[in-house]
Amino acid sequence: MLKRKFLDALIHWKENKQQECLLVKGARQIGKTYIIDYFGREHYRSYIYINFIEMPKFKEIFVGNLSAAEIYKRISLLLPKSRFFEHETLIFLDEIQACPEARTALKFLALDNRYDVIASGSLLGISYKEVNSIPVGYEKQITMYALDFEEYLWASGYTDEKIAILQDYFLLKEAVPPAVHEQMLKLLREYMAVGGMPSVVNKFVETQHFGLVQQEQEKILASYQEDVSKYASNPEKPKVKNCYFSIPKQLAKENKKFQFSVVEKKGTARKFENSIEWLRDANLVYLCYNVSTPAFPLAAYEKEDMYKLYLADIGLLIAMYGYDMKKAIIDDTLTGAAKGGIYENLIADMLVKRGHKLNYFRSQNGETEIEFLITKEAQIIPVEVKANRGATVSLNRILEQAQIPYGYKLISGNVGVNDKKIVMPLYMAMFL
Fold first, then answer.
1. pTM to 2 decimals?
2. Domain ranges in the chain?
3. Smallest Cα–Cα separation from 313: which of 220, 206, 204, 209?
4. I want to staple 97 with a disulfide (CB 3.0 to 4.6 A). Which of 21, 24, 121, 238 is the partner?
Protein backbone atom coordinates (compact mmCIF):
# COMPACT_ATOMS: atom_id res chain seq x y z
CA MET A 1 0.00 0.00 0.00
CA LEU A 2 1.30 3.46 -0.91
CA LYS A 3 1.69 5.70 2.12
CA ARG A 4 -0.52 8.78 1.69
CA LYS A 5 -0.66 12.01 3.68
CA PHE A 6 -4.40 12.16 3.04
CA LEU A 7 -4.95 9.44 5.65
CA ASP A 8 -3.84 11.92 8.33
CA ALA A 9 -6.39 14.42 7.01
CA LEU A 10 -9.16 11.81 7.34
CA ILE A 11 -8.11 10.93 10.89
CA HIS A 12 -8.01 14.62 11.83
CA TRP A 13 -11.53 15.09 10.48
CA LYS A 14 -12.82 12.10 12.44
CA GLU A 15 -11.33 13.36 15.68
CA ASN A 16 -12.40 17.00 15.32
CA LYS A 17 -15.62 17.06 13.31
CA GLN A 18 -18.93 18.32 14.67
CA GLN A 19 -22.14 18.27 12.64
CA GLU A 20 -20.61 17.89 9.20
CA CYS A 21 -20.07 15.37 6.45
CA LEU A 22 -16.80 15.26 4.54
CA LEU A 23 -16.80 15.90 0.79
CA VAL A 24 -13.60 14.69 -0.87
CA LYS A 25 -12.91 16.15 -4.30
CA GLY A 26 -10.20 15.28 -6.78
CA ALA A 27 -9.44 14.00 -10.25
CA ARG A 28 -10.08 10.41 -11.20
CA GLN A 29 -7.56 7.69 -10.40
CA ILE A 30 -5.65 9.59 -7.72
CA GLY A 31 -6.54 7.03 -5.03
CA LYS A 32 -9.56 8.61 -3.29
CA THR A 33 -11.60 5.43 -3.07
CA TYR A 34 -8.64 3.32 -1.99
CA ILE A 35 -7.55 5.53 0.91
CA ILE A 36 -11.08 6.23 2.18
CA ASP A 37 -11.91 2.52 1.99
CA TYR A 38 -8.76 1.73 4.00
CA PHE A 39 -9.66 4.44 6.52
CA GLY A 40 -13.18 3.07 6.93
CA ARG A 41 -12.06 -0.49 7.51
CA GLU A 42 -9.25 0.40 9.91
CA HIS A 43 -10.83 3.15 12.01
CA TYR A 44 -14.49 2.16 12.42
CA ARG A 45 -16.40 -0.70 13.96
CA SER A 46 -18.76 -0.73 10.97
CA TYR A 47 -18.06 0.45 7.42
CA ILE A 48 -20.72 0.82 4.69
CA TYR A 49 -19.67 1.45 1.09
CA ILE A 50 -22.05 2.74 -1.58
CA ASN A 51 -20.91 3.38 -5.16
CA PHE A 52 -23.53 5.11 -7.32
CA ILE A 53 -21.89 4.23 -10.63
CA GLU A 54 -21.04 0.63 -9.82
CA MET A 55 -24.49 -0.03 -8.32
CA PRO A 56 -27.04 2.46 -9.76
CA LYS A 57 -29.85 0.93 -7.70
CA PHE A 58 -28.39 2.66 -4.63
CA LYS A 59 -29.72 5.94 -6.04
CA GLU A 60 -33.17 4.76 -4.88
CA ILE A 61 -32.01 5.37 -1.30
CA PHE A 62 -32.18 9.11 -1.97
CA VAL A 63 -35.52 9.32 -3.78
CA GLY A 64 -38.35 11.13 -2.01
CA ASN A 65 -38.10 11.55 1.78
CA LEU A 66 -34.51 12.55 2.66
CA SER A 67 -34.75 12.36 6.44
CA ALA A 68 -31.75 10.62 8.02
CA ALA A 69 -33.94 7.94 9.59
CA GLU A 70 -35.52 7.09 6.23
CA ILE A 71 -32.16 7.00 4.47
CA TYR A 72 -30.66 4.63 7.05
CA LYS A 73 -33.76 2.43 6.82
CA ARG A 74 -33.36 2.13 3.04
CA ILE A 75 -29.64 1.38 3.36
CA SER A 76 -30.38 -1.46 5.78
CA LEU A 77 -32.93 -2.90 3.35
CA LEU A 78 -30.67 -2.73 0.30
CA LEU A 79 -27.59 -3.82 2.27
CA PRO A 80 -28.91 -6.40 4.77
CA LYS A 81 -25.41 -7.10 6.15
CA SER A 82 -24.88 -3.45 7.09
CA ARG A 83 -24.64 -2.64 10.78
CA PHE A 84 -25.11 0.74 12.47
CA PHE A 85 -23.27 1.67 15.67
CA GLU A 86 -23.60 5.24 16.85
CA HIS A 87 -20.34 7.20 16.38
CA GLU A 88 -18.58 4.00 15.28
CA THR A 89 -19.95 3.68 11.73
CA LEU A 90 -18.65 5.23 8.53
CA ILE A 91 -20.87 5.51 5.44
CA PHE A 92 -18.90 6.19 2.26
CA LEU A 93 -20.92 7.58 -0.66
CA ASP A 94 -18.61 7.15 -3.64
CA GLU A 95 -19.08 8.73 -7.10
CA ILE A 96 -21.65 11.07 -5.57
CA GLN A 97 -21.73 13.20 -8.73
CA ALA A 98 -23.90 10.41 -10.21
CA CYS A 99 -26.57 10.98 -7.54
CA PRO A 100 -27.26 14.72 -6.97
CA GLU A 101 -29.99 13.92 -4.43
CA ALA A 102 -27.37 12.30 -2.19
CA ARG A 103 -25.46 15.58 -2.18
CA THR A 104 -28.61 17.36 -0.99
CA ALA A 105 -29.10 14.72 1.72
CA LEU A 106 -25.70 15.41 3.30
CA LYS A 107 -27.27 18.25 5.33
CA PHE A 108 -29.78 15.93 6.98
CA LEU A 109 -27.18 13.23 7.64
CA ALA A 110 -24.90 15.83 9.23
CA LEU A 111 -27.69 17.16 11.46
CA ASP A 112 -28.51 13.62 12.58
CA ASN A 113 -24.82 13.12 13.44
CA ARG A 114 -25.11 9.53 14.64
CA TYR A 115 -22.85 8.15 11.95
CA ASP A 116 -19.91 9.58 10.05
CA VAL A 117 -20.47 10.20 6.34
CA ILE A 118 -17.86 10.78 3.63
CA ALA A 119 -18.85 11.59 0.06
CA SER A 120 -16.40 11.52 -2.81
CA GLY A 121 -16.36 11.84 -6.55
CA SER A 122 -14.68 13.16 -9.64
CA LEU A 123 -15.93 15.98 -11.84
CA LEU A 124 -17.74 17.50 -8.88
CA GLY A 125 -19.26 20.82 -9.78
CA ILE A 126 -20.45 19.64 -13.19
CA SER A 127 -23.64 18.18 -11.73
CA TYR A 128 -24.23 21.02 -9.26
CA LYS A 129 -27.07 22.43 -11.40
CA GLU A 130 -28.97 19.23 -10.68
CA VAL A 131 -28.55 19.53 -6.90
CA ASN A 132 -31.71 20.88 -5.29
CA SER A 133 -29.92 22.31 -2.27
CA ILE A 134 -26.19 22.60 -1.57
CA PRO A 135 -25.59 21.60 2.09
CA VAL A 136 -23.69 24.78 2.98
CA GLY A 137 -22.35 24.62 6.52
CA TYR A 138 -22.93 20.89 6.80
CA GLU A 139 -20.13 19.58 4.64
CA LYS A 140 -16.41 20.12 4.84
CA GLN A 141 -14.79 20.12 1.42
CA ILE A 142 -11.26 18.87 0.99
CA THR A 143 -9.32 18.20 -2.19
CA MET A 144 -7.08 15.19 -2.63
CA TYR A 145 -4.25 15.16 -5.15
CA ALA A 146 -1.98 12.61 -6.74
CA LEU A 147 1.21 11.72 -4.86
CA ASP A 148 3.51 14.64 -4.12
CA PHE A 149 7.29 14.34 -4.26
CA GLU A 150 7.59 13.44 -0.58
CA GLU A 151 5.07 10.63 -0.97
CA TYR A 152 7.03 9.49 -4.03
CA LEU A 153 10.14 9.34 -1.87
CA TRP A 154 8.24 7.17 0.61
CA ALA A 155 7.27 4.83 -2.23
CA SER A 156 10.95 4.75 -3.25
CA GLY A 157 12.03 3.56 0.20
CA TYR A 158 12.87 6.82 1.96
CA THR A 159 11.75 7.06 5.59
CA ASP A 160 10.43 10.11 7.43
CA GLU A 161 13.75 10.27 9.28
CA LYS A 162 15.75 10.53 6.06
CA ILE A 163 13.44 13.20 4.66
CA ALA A 164 13.70 15.10 7.95
CA ILE A 165 17.47 15.22 7.54
CA LEU A 166 16.97 16.77 4.11
CA GLN A 167 14.49 19.26 5.57
CA ASP A 168 17.10 20.35 8.11
CA TYR A 169 19.32 21.58 5.27
CA PHE A 170 16.33 23.57 4.03
CA LEU A 171 15.54 25.10 7.41
CA LEU A 172 19.18 25.86 8.25
CA LYS A 173 19.87 27.06 4.69
CA GLU A 174 22.95 24.88 4.53
CA ALA A 175 24.37 23.22 1.42
CA VAL A 176 23.33 19.61 0.86
CA PRO A 177 26.27 17.14 0.60
CA PRO A 178 27.09 16.85 -3.15
CA ALA A 179 26.37 13.11 -3.41
CA VAL A 180 23.00 13.52 -1.68
CA HIS A 181 22.18 16.56 -3.82
CA GLU A 182 22.83 14.68 -7.06
CA GLN A 183 20.78 11.73 -5.86
CA MET A 184 17.82 13.98 -5.01
CA LEU A 185 17.99 15.68 -8.41
CA LYS A 186 17.97 12.23 -10.02
CA LEU A 187 14.91 11.24 -7.99
CA LEU A 188 13.17 14.50 -8.86
CA ARG A 189 13.69 13.89 -12.58
CA GLU A 190 12.40 10.37 -12.05
CA TYR A 191 9.33 11.80 -10.33
CA MET A 192 8.79 14.13 -13.28
CA ALA A 193 8.73 11.18 -15.65
CA VAL A 194 6.54 9.00 -13.43
CA GLY A 195 4.34 11.57 -11.75
CA GLY A 196 2.03 10.90 -8.83
CA MET A 197 -0.85 8.82 -10.18
CA PRO A 198 -0.94 5.78 -7.83
CA SER A 199 -1.27 3.12 -10.54
CA VAL A 200 1.69 4.64 -12.39
CA VAL A 201 3.85 4.87 -9.26
CA ASN A 202 3.02 1.27 -8.37
CA LYS A 203 3.89 0.16 -11.90
CA PHE A 204 7.29 1.86 -11.71
CA VAL A 205 8.05 0.60 -8.19
CA GLU A 206 7.26 -2.94 -9.31
CA THR A 207 9.01 -2.90 -12.70
CA GLN A 208 11.40 0.09 -12.89
CA HIS A 209 10.31 0.17 -16.55
CA PHE A 210 9.60 3.60 -18.07
CA GLY A 211 7.97 2.04 -21.13
CA LEU A 212 5.31 0.42 -18.95
CA VAL A 213 4.95 3.72 -17.10
CA GLN A 214 4.20 5.48 -20.39
CA GLN A 215 1.58 2.86 -21.26
CA GLU A 216 -0.13 3.28 -17.89
CA GLN A 217 -0.15 7.07 -18.28
CA GLU A 218 -1.62 6.82 -21.77
CA LYS A 219 -4.44 4.68 -20.34
CA ILE A 220 -5.22 7.40 -17.82
CA LEU A 221 -5.17 10.12 -20.48
CA ALA A 222 -7.52 8.01 -22.61
CA SER A 223 -9.85 7.55 -19.64
CA TYR A 224 -9.90 11.32 -19.10
CA GLN A 225 -10.98 11.76 -22.71
CA GLU A 226 -13.76 9.24 -22.08
CA ASP A 227 -14.82 11.26 -19.01
CA VAL A 228 -15.07 14.38 -21.15
CA SER A 229 -17.21 12.51 -23.66
CA LYS A 230 -19.42 11.21 -20.87
CA TYR A 231 -19.82 14.25 -18.63
CA ALA A 232 -19.29 17.39 -20.73
CA SER A 233 -22.17 18.83 -22.71
CA ASN A 234 -22.09 18.13 -26.44
CA PRO A 235 -20.99 21.67 -27.43
CA GLU A 236 -18.19 21.62 -24.85
CA LYS A 237 -16.69 18.18 -25.54
CA PRO A 238 -14.28 19.12 -28.36
CA LYS A 239 -13.40 22.43 -26.72
CA VAL A 240 -12.54 20.82 -23.38
CA LYS A 241 -10.32 18.23 -25.06
CA ASN A 242 -8.58 20.84 -27.20
CA CYS A 243 -7.88 23.08 -24.21
CA TYR A 244 -6.53 20.20 -22.14
CA PHE A 245 -4.24 18.83 -24.83
CA SER A 246 -3.00 22.30 -25.79
CA ILE A 247 -1.21 22.69 -22.45
CA PRO A 248 2.05 21.03 -23.59
CA LYS A 249 2.17 23.44 -26.54
CA GLN A 250 1.38 26.40 -24.28
CA LEU A 251 4.22 25.55 -21.91
CA ALA A 252 6.69 24.99 -24.74
CA LYS A 253 6.11 28.53 -26.03
CA GLU A 254 6.82 30.32 -22.74
CA ASN A 255 3.53 32.18 -23.09
CA LYS A 256 2.93 35.03 -20.68
CA LYS A 257 -0.64 33.78 -20.29
CA PHE A 258 -2.88 31.01 -21.63
CA GLN A 259 -3.29 31.66 -25.37
CA PHE A 260 -6.61 30.60 -26.87
CA SER A 261 -5.09 31.01 -30.32
CA VAL A 262 -2.93 27.98 -29.53
CA VAL A 263 -6.09 25.97 -28.87
CA GLU A 264 -7.69 27.10 -32.11
CA LYS A 265 -6.76 29.65 -34.74
CA LYS A 266 -8.56 32.89 -33.83
CA GLY A 267 -9.77 31.25 -30.62
CA THR A 268 -11.19 33.58 -27.96
CA ALA A 269 -11.67 33.52 -24.21
CA ARG A 270 -15.41 33.88 -24.67
CA LYS A 271 -15.54 30.69 -26.71
CA PHE A 272 -13.43 28.59 -24.36
CA GLU A 273 -14.05 30.03 -20.87
CA ASN A 274 -16.59 27.32 -19.98
CA SER A 275 -14.11 24.65 -21.07
CA ILE A 276 -11.46 26.05 -18.74
CA GLU A 277 -13.98 26.08 -15.90
CA TRP A 278 -14.88 22.45 -16.70
CA LEU A 279 -11.23 21.38 -16.49
CA ARG A 280 -10.74 23.25 -13.23
CA ASP A 281 -13.86 21.72 -11.66
CA ALA A 282 -12.66 18.29 -12.75
CA ASN A 283 -9.36 18.97 -10.93
CA LEU A 284 -7.40 18.22 -14.10
CA VAL A 285 -5.65 21.60 -14.26
CA TYR A 286 -4.36 24.38 -12.01
CA LEU A 287 -5.10 28.02 -12.81
CA CYS A 288 -2.36 30.50 -11.95
CA TYR A 289 -3.68 34.08 -12.08
CA ASN A 290 -1.57 37.10 -12.83
CA VAL A 291 -1.71 39.92 -10.25
CA SER A 292 -1.32 43.61 -10.98
CA THR A 293 0.89 44.13 -7.95
CA PRO A 294 2.82 41.74 -5.66
CA ALA A 295 1.08 42.78 -2.45
CA PHE A 296 -1.09 41.19 0.22
CA PRO A 297 -3.81 40.03 -0.28
CA LEU A 298 -3.02 38.69 -3.73
CA ALA A 299 -6.68 37.89 -4.43
CA ALA A 300 -7.45 41.60 -4.46
CA TYR A 301 -5.09 42.15 -7.39
CA GLU A 302 -5.90 39.14 -9.58
CA LYS A 303 -6.59 39.69 -13.27
CA GLU A 304 -9.36 37.24 -14.09
CA ASP A 305 -8.64 37.40 -17.81
CA MET A 306 -4.91 36.70 -17.50
CA TYR A 307 -3.80 33.32 -16.24
CA LYS A 308 -1.58 30.36 -16.98
CA LEU A 309 -2.74 26.76 -17.01
CA TYR A 310 -0.75 23.86 -15.59
CA LEU A 311 -1.49 20.14 -15.67
CA ALA A 312 -2.43 18.62 -12.30
CA ASP A 313 0.12 15.81 -12.65
CA ILE A 314 3.65 16.39 -13.91
CA GLY A 315 3.96 12.77 -15.09
CA LEU A 316 0.90 13.07 -17.33
CA LEU A 317 2.37 16.24 -18.83
CA ILE A 318 5.60 14.44 -19.71
CA ALA A 319 3.58 11.53 -21.12
CA MET A 320 1.70 13.94 -23.41
CA TYR A 321 4.99 14.93 -25.00
CA GLY A 322 5.75 11.26 -25.73
CA TYR A 323 8.21 8.64 -24.54
CA ASP A 324 11.27 10.46 -25.91
CA MET A 325 10.57 13.31 -23.51
CA LYS A 326 10.88 10.88 -20.61
CA LYS A 327 14.37 9.97 -21.74
CA ALA A 328 15.34 13.62 -22.14
CA ILE A 329 14.08 14.39 -18.63
CA ILE A 330 15.77 11.40 -17.01
CA ASP A 331 19.07 12.02 -18.82
CA ASP A 332 18.77 15.78 -18.20
CA THR A 333 19.45 16.54 -21.86
CA LEU A 334 16.38 18.69 -22.49
CA THR A 335 17.05 22.24 -23.69
CA GLY A 336 15.04 25.11 -25.12
CA ALA A 337 11.81 26.82 -24.13
CA ALA A 338 9.98 23.58 -23.34
CA LYS A 339 12.33 22.88 -20.44
CA GLY A 340 11.41 26.09 -18.64
CA GLY A 341 7.69 25.46 -19.05
CA ILE A 342 7.94 21.87 -17.84
CA TYR A 343 9.85 22.87 -14.71
CA GLU A 344 7.31 25.62 -14.05
CA ASN A 345 4.59 22.96 -14.15
CA LEU A 346 6.61 20.80 -11.76
CA ILE A 347 6.89 23.58 -9.19
CA ALA A 348 3.23 24.58 -9.66
CA ASP A 349 2.28 20.97 -8.89
CA MET A 350 4.51 20.89 -5.81
CA LEU A 351 3.21 24.21 -4.49
CA VAL A 352 -0.46 23.27 -4.87
CA LYS A 353 0.15 20.01 -3.04
CA ARG A 354 1.70 22.04 -0.22
CA GLY A 355 -1.54 24.00 0.05
CA HIS A 356 -0.55 27.15 -1.85
CA LYS A 357 -2.80 29.09 -4.20
CA LEU A 358 -1.05 29.91 -7.47
CA ASN A 359 -0.37 33.46 -8.62
CA TYR A 360 2.31 35.06 -10.78
CA PHE A 361 3.43 38.60 -11.45
CA ARG A 362 4.26 40.29 -14.72
CA SER A 363 4.72 44.04 -14.82
CA GLN A 364 2.90 46.05 -17.47
CA ASN A 365 6.14 46.78 -19.34
CA GLY A 366 7.09 43.10 -19.19
CA GLU A 367 10.47 43.81 -17.60
CA THR A 368 9.67 41.96 -14.38
CA GLU A 369 8.12 38.51 -14.27
CA ILE A 370 8.04 36.14 -11.31
CA GLU A 371 6.77 32.60 -11.91
CA PHE A 372 5.00 32.25 -8.57
CA LEU A 373 3.97 34.34 -5.58
CA ILE A 374 2.99 32.60 -2.37
CA THR A 375 1.65 34.00 0.89
CA LYS A 376 3.16 33.33 4.30
CA GLU A 377 2.02 35.12 7.46
CA ALA A 378 0.35 37.89 5.42
CA GLN A 379 3.58 38.52 3.50
CA ILE A 380 4.25 37.87 -0.19
CA ILE A 381 7.12 35.54 -1.04
CA PRO A 382 8.28 35.45 -4.69
CA VAL A 383 9.43 32.13 -6.13
CA GLU A 384 11.50 32.16 -9.30
CA VAL A 385 12.10 28.91 -11.16
CA LYS A 386 15.22 28.28 -13.19
CA ALA A 387 15.51 24.91 -14.89
CA ASN A 388 19.23 25.66 -15.22
CA ARG A 389 21.21 28.26 -13.29
CA GLY A 390 20.41 31.50 -15.11
CA ALA A 391 20.42 35.04 -13.78
CA THR A 392 17.48 36.30 -11.74
CA VAL A 393 17.02 39.88 -12.84
CA SER A 394 13.29 39.91 -12.05
CA LEU A 395 13.74 38.39 -8.60
CA ASN A 396 16.53 40.84 -7.77
CA ARG A 397 14.32 43.73 -8.82
CA ILE A 398 11.28 42.65 -6.81
CA LEU A 399 13.39 41.98 -3.70
CA GLU A 400 14.31 45.67 -3.67
CA GLN A 401 10.79 46.36 -2.44
CA ALA A 402 10.72 46.81 1.32
CA GLN A 403 7.47 44.88 1.82
CA ILE A 404 8.98 41.70 0.30
CA PRO A 405 10.87 40.00 3.17
CA TYR A 406 12.72 37.42 1.05
CA GLY A 407 12.35 35.31 -2.06
CA TYR A 408 13.32 31.91 -3.39
CA LYS A 409 15.31 31.05 -6.47
CA LEU A 410 14.81 27.37 -7.31
CA ILE A 411 17.58 25.88 -9.44
CA SER A 412 19.39 22.62 -10.14
CA GLY A 413 22.28 23.88 -8.01
CA ASN A 414 22.75 23.72 -4.25
CA VAL A 415 21.63 25.87 -1.31
CA GLY A 416 22.90 29.43 -1.00
CA VAL A 417 21.88 32.76 0.51
CA ASN A 418 22.53 36.24 -0.89
CA ASP A 419 20.91 38.88 1.30
CA LYS A 420 17.11 38.50 0.78
CA LYS A 421 17.52 35.92 -2.00
CA ILE A 422 17.46 32.29 -0.88
CA VAL A 423 18.73 29.82 -3.47
CA MET A 424 17.34 26.31 -3.13
CA PRO A 425 17.52 23.12 -5.20
CA LEU A 426 14.33 22.45 -7.14
CA TYR A 427 13.47 19.43 -4.99
CA MET A 428 13.31 21.67 -1.88
CA ALA A 429 10.01 23.06 -3.19
CA MET A 430 8.40 20.20 -1.27
CA PHE A 431 9.22 22.14 1.93
CA LEU A 432 8.06 25.61 0.89
1. 0.94
2. 6-143, 149-195+252-257+280-431
3. 220
4. 121
